[in-house]
Amino acid sequence: MVQVPASRARSPRTHSIHAPSHRWDASLDSLPTAIARFDRQLCCIGASQRWRHDFGLTARPLAGQTLVQLLPDLPRHWQRACQHSLTTGETVEGEAEPVRIAGDRLSYRRWRTSPWCGPNGSIDGVWLWSEAVAVPAADTAQPTQAGLKSRPAVQPQQFQASESELRTIFERAGVGLNFQNLDGRFVCLNQRWCEILGYSEAELLGLQFRDITHPADHQLEQPHLARLLAGEIPNFTIEKRYIHKNGQVVWVNLTKTVAYDVSGQPQHFITAIADISERKQAEREQVRLLAALDATTDLVAIADANGQLCHLNRAGRQRLGLAPGASLTTWQLRDLIGCAEREVSCDRSIAELRHTGILRGEGELQQPDGTKIPISQVAIAHTNDAGEIEFFSLIARDISDRKRIEVTLRQQAADLEQALRQLQATQAQLVQTEKMSSLGQLVAGVAHEINNPVNFIYGNLSHARCYLNDLLALLANYQQHYPEPVAAIREQEAAIEIDFLLDDLPKLLDSMYTGADRIKTIVASLRTFSRTDESSFKEVDLHAGLDSTLMLLQSRFQPHDDRPGIELVKQYGELPRLECYPSQLNQVFMNLLVNALDALDARDQQYSLTSGQPQPRCIRIATELTPTGEASIRIADNGLGIPVEIQQRIFDPFFTTKPVGQGTGLGLSVSYQIITERHGGRLTCQSTPQQGTEFTVTLPLTASQTTGDE
Prior knowledge:
Layout: H1 12-15, E1 17-18, H2 24-30, E2 34-39, E3 44-47, H3 49-54, H4 67-70, H5 76-88, E4 92-101, E5 105-117, E6 123-134, H6 145-149, H7 156-161, H8 163-172, E7 176-180, E8 186-189, H9 191-197, H10 201-205, H11 209-212, H12 222-229, E9 235-243, E10 249-260, E11 266-275, H13 277-295, E12 299-304, E13 309-312, H14 314-320, H15 342-356, E14 358-366, E15 372-383, E16 389-398, H16 400-481, H17 487-496, H18 498-530, E17 538-540, H19 542-552, H20 554-557, E18 567-571, E19 578-580, H21 582-610, E20 618-625, E21 630-637, H22 667-678, E22 682-688, E23 692-700
Parallel strand pairs: 1-5, 18-20
Antiparallel strand pairs: 2-3, 2-6, 4-5, 5-6, 7-8, 7-11, 9-10, 10-11, 12-13, 12-16, 14-15, 15-16, 17-19, 20-21, 21-23, 22-23
């Protein structure tokens, strides 16, 4: 916004203009500069054709219309500057800024307001000048021939009638103005012309246009001058180069018209120039910038303050399927903001951009074929000194390759993690297998060492029974044939309680037989459980393996002082002999039964803390032959059950619900691998919290049915 500082305000005594006569209109209308006159209410009194053309008012009456009514989109500080000139009598100059002109396009323009005075010397209104410094291409178009014919010719007497007022306008115009003879010599020129070219007025009056024109542009005006003098066009506008006094090239926007005498013959050329060197430099920089933007593979877009796209680089047009010269009038910034939900997310993103000034993130951009590509985007709201948004910029990069790499990396990471888990599980299984192998060897060794003396004892007990029976028979004969033994024998019989001894000794021998049988059974169970000599598939009786495992765990089923006994329910069905790794299956049965026993102990501990009365402890083992010809072993307990949220993890290596030090988290994992990988079976779990858990082992009957046959 343009303020009115003291340095830009000028004294009203030197620059106020006395009210011109009504004859000023024809003369002013011929001036190739945009100027308009307003009264104290800022109602338009008149304007030059250039002013009407620039602001799209050629077909509209101006008289009586206020500045706001004529130009509702004009920056408000222009109106404030007019009011300032009316109040103080000062001239206010504005820097170049974007202004919406004819065709709803933007043009960068300098401007100036200056008061004009009536006959009594009072300020009766203001002049408003406007000079384009970045004129759109459409501005170079010539007015129509119909518009040309409607303008009256400027007569010499009209120049004389308004000479005073026009002289002031001429001198104070923001553009370089001059009158030039038809032969190209200067008649008069204003100070701005001298400033643009660096010459004094006296120096320029001695020169022709050709003397200060760039050699390459000497013939540039000739075709237009011929048409102008022939009355085909009222004026023309071109861009050309002059040579500054210091030798530098000066680019100008030149507008030329012609003034006629009373007979209608051309008398003078009236020329206006605006220094556009800075604009040309900016255009060159813009060309380089646009070339750089077109060279990038990123989408780059620029939109005005309303979000209307103004520029889209080559990559952006290709991405959206737009031809190089296709119009952007139907495209809004929100169309390019990558959003998943267009109506909601994009509006929210635009609101955030307006509020914070910047928007970063990732999204999706829909292409013409309907496919969406992932993009990384940065949008910036560019503001002026007053904090008002002037335009938006957006950079969006296709990150499809990055996303694919990320997916690949995530997959590789997942594969590595899976490989690590498998390695850990394999290592754990090897450790567990080695432990079980060592334990099996130990058990087998112990069983072997115990078996020899037990067999010795068991074998001699039969002989001892025979010998004892013979001795008892002999003693009975003695008692029969010698009923009255000597006193010493009677005393010894009384001392040893011969009758009790004869009755208890056979019972004692029977107990020894029973103990020996028990030891033989335990040794057989140990050997069955270890099966160290069975490293390949063999046909075995699953029930024998279950019973041997139960035999080893029998002490945990017995009642103790701190807990009651556990009821064991065996529901064995008819199963044929099964091909398997016997020792590995026994290891699985051991793991499942130990977990069931631990679950019952944990349940009793919980009930003891709450002083509740638990149901009787029970473990149920059921076997059957399924309709698909597979062996099914179900081991169930009525313990606490497994929480639902961790049931999916119970077969993971090193996962355990037991307290630290009471479980390694390998039992179920190793069991799962033994059943699924080594035997081609299935191990599943069904658990209801606070009710119990049931594990089901399903095995094929033969090695040919397995998927893990080795």
